[in-house]
Amino acid sequence: MDKLILGRYIPGDSMVHRLDPRTKLMASFYYIAIIFLANNWQSYLLMFVATMVMIMLSKVKLSFFLRGVRPMIWLIMFTVALQIFFTKGGHTYWSWGWLAITQFGLTNGAFIFMRFVLIIFISTLLTLTTQPLSLADAVESLLKPLRVIHVPVTELALVLQIALRFVPTLMDQTTKIMNAQRARGVDFGTGNLFQQMKAVVPLLIPLFVDSFGIAEDLATAMDARGYQGGDNRTKYRVLQYHRSDATAAIVMVALTGLLVFLRA
Amino acid sequence: MDITFDHVSFTYQAGTPFAGDGLKDISTTIKGGDYTAIIGHTGSGKSTLLQHLNALLKPTSGTVTIGDREITPETNNKNLKPLRQKVGMVFQFAENQLFEQTVERDIAFGPMNFGVPEKDAKALAAQMVKLVGLPDDILQQSPFDLSGGQMRRVAIAGVLAMQPEILVLDEPTAGLDPAGRLEMMTMFKKLHDEQGLTIVLVTHQMDDVADYADRVLVMEHGALVRQGTPREIFADPDWLRQKQLGLPKTTAFAERLQKLGFTFDQMPLTASELADDLMPQIGGGDRG
Amino acid sequence: MANAIDISHLKYSYPEATKPALNDVSFVVPAGEWWAIIGHNGSGKSTLAKNINGLLAPESGSVTVAGMPLTEQTVWDIRAKVGIVFQNPDNQFVGATVADDVAFGLENRAVPRDEMLTRVHDALVAVNMQDFATREPARLSGGQKQRVAIAGIVAQRPDIIILDEATSMLDPAGRLEIIDLIKQLRQQQSLTVLSITHDIDEAAGADHVLLLDDGQVKEIGTPAEIFQHGEALLQLGLDVPYPEKLKNALAKRGVHMPAGYLDEEGLAKALWTLHSTM
What we know:
Chain A is mainly alpha-helical and 264 residues long.
């Protein structure tokens, strides 16, 4: 569990941490979109430098980002290999039957590799510097217009918030139940697939039962505290744009201009 | 069968919510046949210590010897089953471990994992249901249709069915009503006295320590700060208060009487001990 | 003073149950009093709590809370007047952080945000958790979580607070922490307290104890009156008070102490009198 970097929050007080989560969410999507505009060395170099600057501003160690790439490495390598072997054009360095390594193949492979790494770095940056709860708030706020077409945005946001709040509780419960069943002779994670699946039953059923118990208790507590659903509620936690959010937007626009200028 | 801790330390991985309350250089022996109580306030490392008793956790340094099996930081996770069968664990809110369709199958689950044939395991289930004071006809019911107290008993029966030599109890009576608590503690006492089961009890109830235990381990910040008989431990009320651990009701009341002018050769631990001590001092000695 | 709770001939049955969980329950709690409700597990204590704020709808009989008869129209107003602290500290924590959780009830009642900020802060100060406002529940102890639950209730400025075995999952330190807090809040905010409990110390501090048995009110009395039941209390869902245990041990040895319930101080004095007249 500790190895999972994507989705983990590293507390901090950097410029990036302090940005409004809506800004970060929109900027990340926008940035990922414009990465696809890059199509030559100059434009990729620009995006690479820009990403590195953002990472430095976040004051999170680079090793966290590299670890974020690790679980994806096989997918990246596979895609890069496809590009290298199947792109024709330019000088041919090596060929064997219908396989060939060409000049265009190598550049395309390198570009694809860059694209993957940059996308992973940027999404990692978003989750490392933004609390899941703030992200949920951002999603709620950005989806608000959908209320017009009767999407229950407020309720969905509350569901998301409660789900996030109970993740540690359920993880804790999972450890406890696993310990209890191991003490009764269950081996988790050993044996063949069938044995492993069988071992999961004594874990999953108590977890389900427990979750239903929590849900029932929680519903009662929410009822007792006057929760009636709907949009007729006020909000304690509100999001507010600051000057730095405007700066971030201007940087994005400037970056796009430069990128268009540099691309072939 | 004894369990011996030799300079055992344990550190949780940094960054987990438990980081901090590991174990620090613990050396002690839990003797076969004893009734040992472990006390210490929440976060003192009691639960971590418990998980070393059947190798759910392995020490970061030092050695735990469980019967004839040595557990060191290098021990691999294979072949721990024989050991787990010998050390039965009843965790807090043990009813949370129930999962089978019937009470019988849930109780038989443990023994069958340790290689007991289904027929024998079911016979064990029938026997254990009786032992924990539940009616026979409960065997074919779903454990999820029972009351909380009954579910707890089924879970305990499931651990007893493994026929362990050592029974480890982590606050086994939490959440039960007083009558249920008393019944359960009496049941463990019987298992200890009649079947010779070694018992390790983690509790916050000093009265239970005074009433049942032969030996007490006191934990604080992951270290074993004192060990001895209940009488030795409770002889030092100021030290216990400083550790925020409290006294058995009798001992606390005896302290109050001491201030009035009563005298005690040693601090009494139970109501009947105190009554004995009081008899000669309130003019009842000749009637005793 | 007015009555905080007035219940008359209340009956409630769970669907598919063969007999009612509450039957012909009547009692009146004057405003400002502390009542302990005791009874063994399954005697209907929690069902009673849920009938008081309309989480369950009575089958027959009437419930009047803070002068308002409980009906479909008044149920939300009554819930604003009655706060319940439930047993499991984790399962009633709705917010992602301490402050969010305290605010939850206020958000539900559409309290304007400016007012909400002060009320949340004041409530956290009242339970001495102001330094924890941004903490997540996973990093709090059981006692601290219950404090937060109480702050959530205090923020709504209720008249009545119900503790539904709120201390039963806590360690002794956590239990005392919560009992002391409730005692203190009750004075500051003139609350009526109803505590459903198995804890003898909690019951001993009450003005009145209501003994529930199989869904019926078996007895209402002062703690001293109820504690006279001695060893029979165990079957009624309460521990035997320590002085009773010692009196019994002495009685077995032929020493008979004065009849009637003695608290620890009373018993110590009685023993000292015997000692002095020896």
